[in-house]
Amino acid sequence: MPTIQQRMFKLKELLWIRMGPGSATIPRNVQSISLRLARQIDGGHRGPKKFIREILPRIKYRNPWLPIKVDRNAPNHEAAFMTVTFTPSAKRDPTRIEMKYKPESEIWSQLADVVRAQTIAPSEVELEETEEIRKRNEHSRVVREAQLAVNAKLKREKELLEAAKQQTAAVMQAEQGA
């Protein structure tokens, strides 16, 4: 069972949702965002799918009031697009952003330009926590590699011991048979 410290560290790993591309506030004149794409990444749907997986959670985290609808039932040959709807007071028509064959960073930059999003810079605490996570992951990697080396050595010793036992048994059988 994991300790409380291990659980807290796992929670700290959720820090990715608070910083990075998509970590921005969207003005209240945006009424909703809807996306349409295919389930498979074939036919130019890789960028939109990565946008939904990596950037959209950050947008939703920073803007919980914003309704976002995702439709993943489009056929692969159809276009992947995002529609941004504004409030009536904004006096702007809905904007359609084409996403097919575009990387997630380009999709985000187009959305940020359309809605005039305000990027949120990470705080010092968040940067320190990110560095702590990086150091801990590096330490875990070093410990894991050392344990793999120990396990490989033990396995090799066990194989050598088994081979020696078999060889001894064969010699004993040969002596008894002669």
Outline the fold blueprint.
Layout: H1 4-12, E1 24-25, E2 30-36, H2 46-62, E3 68-71, E4 81-86, E5 95-98, H3 104-115, E6 118-119, H4 124-177
Parallel strand pairs: 2-3
Antiparallel strand pairs: 1-6, 2-4, 4-5
Structural write-up:
This protein is of the alpha+beta class and 178 residues long. It folds into two domains: 1-15 and 122-178; 20-119, Glutaredoxin. Helices cover 52% and strands 14% of the residues. The chain has helices at 4-12, 46-62, 104-115, 124-177, and strands at 24-25, 30-36, 68-71, 81-86, 95-98, 118-119. The strands form two sheets. The protein has a four-stranded mixed β-sheet, covered by helices on one side. A two-stranded antiparallel sheet has the order 1-6. α2 (46-62) links the parallel β2 (30-36) and β3 (68-71). α2 crosses α3 (104-115). The chain is elongated and about 105 Å long. 15% of the residues are buried. The mean pLDDT is 91.
Concise structural overview:
Keywords: Coiled coil, Mitochondrion, Ribonucleoprotein, Ribosomal protein. The chain has 178 residues and is α+β, with helices and mostly antiparallel strands. The chain has helices spanning 4-12, 46-62, 104-115, 124-177; strands spanning 24-25, 30-36, 68-71, 81-86, 95-98, 118-119.
